[in-house]
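Q: Could you fold this chain for me?
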Amino acid sequence: MTDFIITNLENGLFTITLNYPEKMNCMGFDMLEGIDKAVDMAKINDDVKAILFQGAGERAFSTGANIKEFEKLKDGEVKRWIEFGNDINNKIETLSKPTVAYINAMPWEVG
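A: Sure. Below is the predicted structure, expressed as structure tokens.
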């Protein structure tokens, strides 16, 4: 696991926290690899009954791709990044365990 992902299992709830709050949890290869490993762990652990995704910090769940890292990638690496992210999303989508994304909103943003 990387420092960009924090996991916790409590009472059957496996929490996966995106942990790069100073950059609003933008995702680079390290974070994607951490998410991938965390999802694999949750999938095979019978003690995990549900999975919660959340972002560290107060400003954002995640702003998406780490554009500064993404801009430095060569063509083959861009394709690998996109395919890897897509594979992770497909893995999450096909889990047999319920998943929830907890996305904070400031009171003035809630309609």
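A (continued): The mean pLDDT is 91.
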